[in-house]
Write a structure and sequence with these properties.
This protein is α+β, with helices and mostly antiparallel strands. The protein is built from 19 helices and 9 strands. The chain has a 9-stranded antiparallel β-sheet with strand order 1-6-5-4-3-7-8-9-2. Helix 10 runs antiparallel to helix 12 and helix 15 packs antiparallel against helix 16.
Amino acid sequence: MSKTEPKTLLFHGDLRATLGGECRVSVLGHEAHAHARLFDSFDTELAHKGVLLLSAGDTLSLLDASGGETRQDSAPAGFLDEMPDGPVARILAKHLSPLRRLLELVTAEMGAQDVALRDAKDRLLCHGHLRVLTTDKGGQISLLGLRPLAGQKGDYKRLVKHLRSEPSRCCPREALEALAPGATAYQPKPDVALSPDTPAFDAASAIVAAHLPVVRVNEPGIIADHDSEFLHDYRVALRKIRSVVSLFTGVYSPGQAADLKARFSALMSVTGRLRDLDVYLIERPRYVQMVPDSLRPGVDLLFDHFAKERHGAHDALCRHLRSETYDAEITALHDLFATPHERLDRGDEADHPARDYAQQLIRKRYRKVRKVARAIDSDTPDAEIHRLRIQCKKLRYLMEFFAPLFGQSDMTRLIKALKKLQDNLGDFNDSVVQQKALSSVFGTLTDTDHDRQLEIARSIGALTTVLHQRQDAERARVMQTFADFDAPKTRAGFKALLDPRNGAG
């Protein structure tokens, strides 16, 4: 059973006590009680997109900022692609990847009862259903579902307008925060306040200091193994930190930069195999579709092998993250950037004003991207295309790091154009890397009998053939994708961005 309510509005507190004046709530009948749970992804993507996912009794409800409520039979939390089909699942599929896991963020006790809404003269305006959610820590919100009276369309519209203007009215994100304070605070791309005259040393240190908490906040999720995105965000944060150290040349002394780069690279290296296996397992449906039906049992055996290896890789990473050695190292790095002027050695470019320094770095990297890309043709070695991918990644990091110093809309447009080229290069690189990875798998199948090894080998051969075909197709696209990126409009955007006379950047 499913239905869509005409309007379900969210409010802070208990509406029975807070609503008054021109409109008040009068209760009708018995109040029912149930246990309620709120779900979202690990980074509260639903709340940030303006929806709230609530499970109570045998009903799963999705509420949006406009007042819509969609319902279907409740289902246990888990991965979206494992969720039973229904109107809620279909809407969630528009907001989240099917591989994202829905996590229980907060539980609450829910009181529910029918109500009537009346004006100051006690005239009935509308019937409704009120649900009040209260946590054990005192957080409280009200969900008011409205049912208009026949023949009173005008009254209903005026009532909704009045309720929308109520001071206690809240959006889905605010409602989640009221019940679970801090739940939506996670920012995988933290904002760093920079000014044009900020010294480059201070800018670099502030960017690193802002990303270190992203590393730390993802550790429990990696250990709990809720969602592969915890590890993904952990690695991206470390990669960006390492990029600051290596790309911001001259900000730290050569010895200090080399030491920091080695230390952050060491933290990254421990996570590599688990992330590789996560990517393979995420892509399992696509791999299955690559080969004919007769070879799919071999693909299933191959991925059973990957799943078994992943279990061991996850256990190893958990031991590392729980170790005293890791805790001491990550704490020491945090302390370095908490007081950088006292603990870090400055380089020759340390006092370079941030905007001028940013233009210098971006200009250098942009020229490298264009130089490498313009030399690519159908005979270019794979390594050169990989080099272009790395140069694009470095350019994008620099642009994202320094975005606050430039016109945000202009920078966003340039980053979007660059991302299209990156996506193409990433697909090409994935095809190359996956072929090499598959070719190395066979020698690791020591715990598999001969017949299964043979079945896996045939599937690997077929997968490698398809991946090679995709590699050739992506290579052919690189030249056109770069031509699109190197269009006059984009070149003009970079010229304006990098013009020293540009007061905004």
